[in-house]
């Protein structure tokens, strides 16, 4: 009888512990902002560990030291409110950990206006390089209510890009659309279910994925 009672007591304690852990996990995930692919509501962080991952390379949009040993790979949408919230946080990290951390931007365009801005960002990169991409991106996130071809053209011109060439790129965007689709499909395959979806790559190439607009801390 004593053993049975002890076993029952142990099971009860285990159930309580698991319950507390689940409650904490739900609370933590619930407080993180992320826009779901279907309904733009908060999404739960993916528990899956990516099985395949494209390490940052020369084709990526990189902010910070390209030789930094830590990479923050963000899959994002220019029309996502939580992405806009995370944007300055990642900028701050790259600035404060200069030379140690690099930020890689990849597309996870869920919304029509976000895709328009994504196409514009790729055209800006094609005509103005990596610096133009980040200048374009900053303006998109700072002016989400203005997203569209007109604002993309205005932004490109402000960055010193020839308007005629930029418009021609927008009108013949099949090539850049393929890149955007590739990034999107990659994020889905890695477990991304909402924006922003981020994979931190450690110096030993360990992958640490998370979803949502986590605060700087």
How are the SSEs ordered, and which strands pair?
Blueprint: H1 2-30, E1 35-36, E2 61-64, E3 70-76, H2 81-96, E4 101-107, H3 112-142, H4 149-158, H5 163-171, H6 174-190, E5 194-195, E6 197-201, E7 207-211
Parallel strand pairs: 3-4
Antiparallel strand pairs: 1-5, 2-4, 3-6, 6-7
Helix pairs in contact: 3-4, 3-5, 4-5
CATH class: Alpha Beta
* Helix content percent band: 40-55%
Whole-angstrom Rg: 21 Å
The CATH topology name reads Glutaredoxin
Relevant terms:
alpha+beta; disordered N terminus; five-stranded mixed sheet; 217 residues; Glutaredoxin; 7 strands; two-stranded antiparallel sheet; 6 helices
Write structural notes for this entry.
- There is one protein chain.
- With 217 residues, the chain is of the alpha+beta class.
- The chain has one domain (32-211): 3-Layer(aba) Sandwich (Glutaredoxin), CATH 3.40.30.10.
- Helices cover 52% and strands 15% of the residues.
- The protein is built from 6 helices and 7 strands, in the order H-E-E-E-H-E-H-H-H-H-E-E-E.
- The strands form 2 sheets. The chain has a 5-stranded mixed sheet. A two-stranded antiparallel sheet has the order 1-5.
- Helix 3 runs antiparallel to helix 5 (163-171) and helix 4 (149-158) packs antiparallel against helix 5 (163-171).
- The model is unreliable at 1-32 and 38-51 (pLDDT under 50).
Describe what is shown at a glance.
This protein is an alpha+beta fold.
